[in-house]
Amino acid sequence: MQRGVKLSFILISFVISACIVLVFGAYLFLRSSTGSNILLSKAKAYLEDSMNTHVEYSRGRIDPFSTVHFENFKLTRNNKNEQVEIIAKEIDIHYSVSFFSRKVVIERILVDHPTVFYSRVEPVEAKTSQPQKSWEFLVLPVQVSVKQFEIKSMDLDLNKESALSTLKSKIRDLNLRFGFEIVPSSLTSAGEFSLSDTSSVVMISKKHLDSVRDSVFETFLSASAKWSTSVHPQEKKWILGFEGVAKLLNMKYGKWELQSRMQVEGQSTDFLSGTGTSTLTQNQLFSEPITINHKVNLKSEKIELEMTANLPSLEVKKVAKFQDTQILATVRSPNVFAAKDLDFSLKIKQGLITFAKEFVRRSYTLKNGLNLTMGGTIRDRARFNLDEFSADFNNSLVRLSAEATGKVKEKEFQTKGQLTLDIPKDFPSIAGTAIRGRIEFPWTLSIIQGRLLAFRGDIDVFNLDWSKENLHVTGISGKIPVSEKLLWDGKKIKFEHLIIQNPFERVDYERLRPLINGAARIRFEEIGFENMTYGPFVGFFSVDQNVISAHQFDFTLGSTGRTYGEMYFDLYPANLQMGFLARLTEVNLKEVMPKKYLTKIPQEEKNLSGRLGIVLNLNKGSIDGRMDITEIGRGQLLALINVLDPKYQNDKMNMARSKLGLAYPTFVTMVFQNGYMDMSVQLSLADLNAQIRGIPISTWISSATSKTVKKSQEGFLK
Question: Left, alpha or beta for 408 (phi > 0: left; psi -120 to 50: alpha)?
């Protein structure tokens, strides 16, 4: 061998030997106490500088090839929005690494008596979370095996605040032990846990709910379970064995309380079932708690959740007693690994209902209660279809059928259906209100971008009777078209645009004709108040945005009287008002006014005729407009004065009463403005003409309409 070749061979051998010595030396150094201290100091410095995280411990050691061990471990992290503190009595990890087979085997992970404190306040403009891909961890190029992972007596304290709510959660004495192995495209795991005391409280911000007391949601849980599982996503296979007990789940919201106990177990390698009972309590509504039995089924290739509830008897205090109620709800997903597609259904069948005397004033029983069937699908977490929805109450008393479709991400929704009420003559009055007859209401609803609501429908009424206390309406038949465009601002609904009505605009037949031709007529055979009856009433009605309009109406008053014209009612809460533009002919006030206003009225045959255009503002309690009476008798005018001054307290009105004993009226004008009325009375003797000014009427209007105004302001319309 040549001398140069020998020299090269010796040099290469020396370099390789040096590398081996250096690697072996580094290996020994990293596993030594000095190397461990250097690694720990580097790790602490990196966490401090890069992640704003501080680590403390009384004793620590890292062997990068076999062991991680800490005693009295403490980790703290603080930033602008988040605070984390983790304390553990001991952390001990034993593992082995094989570089050639690319395999990590973790023999044991022990976390003894850990305590976690977590607090977060979300910024006003939170970042949009990116969609997560399911099961990505199963495509790791390295095989990972954890033989034993153990947590002893863990305490967790979680506090998370956002603009909408505050979450406070505490876990006490959590014990967890499991092992798992990840190889490419599969996961196997087995373990057990026990949880003796967990509490969670969610408080909604005062800005979003007026009542703080009712915005607190509390849960308490104690449970234990054992499981073994094998997941193979590519083969769409999931093998599961499970046995668990929810010893107690207690949820409270306001005066509602739910307590549940559940036993779950795997009956075979591909089937999981759970059974349990729940008790629902609400002392103000229910005379005794509601008991519900539920069941969960889970198969390897699909999720199948099923809940059945049988309620033999349920009584709502002072309302009704419900017997033989059955509820069946199911949710299915064809792919357990990516539950993008869901099929759901709900069925409710309810038996006898006995209404309480406090609710309907007499005992009344329905043989059939609510029967409901609903089914639909969600596809790719984006498309929603309600394929079937049908519900009826007592077979035909109330019926509702509908179908719907929507796009979840775009917040768009379309539905159509029909609501039918068919109330028999023997149905009792509810809260003093009695209704008999039939109503059909076909409708369509579209929701665009979760904000704009477009609603159209027709209210068809067939021989409907309504009564409450001393007021009744009988023989209502006809149709009222409804058209609404509304906006949802996250709290209340408001009109997309408003219709401004002017009742004093000149009535022109060419303006009204297209409205009348397109409108549907509705007829009231009789309207009754106290001891008086009126009618029939015929009008062409429509509901459009904030206005209920009678484009033309004709109302019979007594045996000879009649009023006709147009009127409207503005539903906008900030501008709640009624407007009338009408003529009156041959009205005998003795036939249309209550008897209490007809005392001391002379007998005569002359009737009332005139015209009026007025706006009644319910919010202000005022009337603006004018009424001209072109024909009236002494008795008619005295009756009107009695309405305005029933106790004979106004000196000017008493003077007018005395003048009517000497002459008869020929023309009366009433002008309404700013809550007051001016009355001008022309008599057959001109020297006796009367002028009565500044008659206050706002107090009278406010007292009569205060309940209506209050309900409109408390309603859902903005």
Answer: alpha
